[in-house]
Amino acid sequence: MTANGPDPSNGDMQNYRLTLAYDGREFMGWQRHGDQRTVQGVLEASIESAFAQQVSVRGAGRTDRGAHADGQVASVALTRGLAVGDVHAMLGAELPADLVLRDVAEADANFHARTSAVGKTYGYRIWNAQDCPESELGRVWNSPRPLDISSMQEAAGILVGEHDFASFATKANFKQRSTVRNLQSIEILFEARIIEFSFVADAFLYKMVRNLVRAIVKVGEGRSDKAKLASILAAKDRSAAPGTAPASGLCLKSVHY
Questions:
Q1: Catalytic site residue 103?
Q2: Residues in the chain, pLDDT under 50
Q3: pLDDT tens digits for 164-181?
Q4: Domain 13-107 bears CATH identifier 3.30.2350.10
Q5: Rounded to 5 degrees, what are φ and ψ at 28?
Q6: Given 12, 23, 35, 64, the catalytic residue
Q7: Is 119-256 assigned to CATH 3.30.70.660?
């Protein structure tokens, strides 16, 4: 046992990789925080109820309050002797309707959901029309102002590659050693009144995706352009960039290992 729960390197323990999806509307984010309803807190309580073991779950990404996931990954150590199918069935039965266990796999003792990751894919959705349907409320950024998709796609291209993304990081990230990230791709698609972004990178700074979305949308609104976006990136200064897009449109799509 360690300060963070059972030690996966203990020969009596088996490390598991859990793939999760959740609707973030009723969660106060991923990270355990007192008595608040968080994904980590609900997941740990469900595991402890299912297997009568005290655990500490490690997540690949600390999603914000109201953000969603289709492919969040968590790692947890449980006593050996549990078949993967039994872990899936027993834990799945304990979870609430807005937190779904998609997959369970055995993992090496040194596997850690966050530090073993080599990249992530985030999605972001905007309802770009009037009269957002009730089924989409809390699942999108409801922004009916017409947007120039081609201008957004062209401007987003300058963000792809390895850059210092300090202009798109929160103050908490400035304590880190580096705000340089390799943003491998950005895709922006428009279909049936929904604009869908896809961001792939080796890692993301806190709120980086939401900050990038807001800056790109300003281009689509005609209130910024490709040159201005380039100058914001070059400034390496958060105050040079516009605000932050709502968490409701954000979804952690997958984690790469």
A1: no
A2: 1, 3
A3: 999 999 876 556 579 999
A4: no
A5: -95, 45
A6: 64
A7: yes
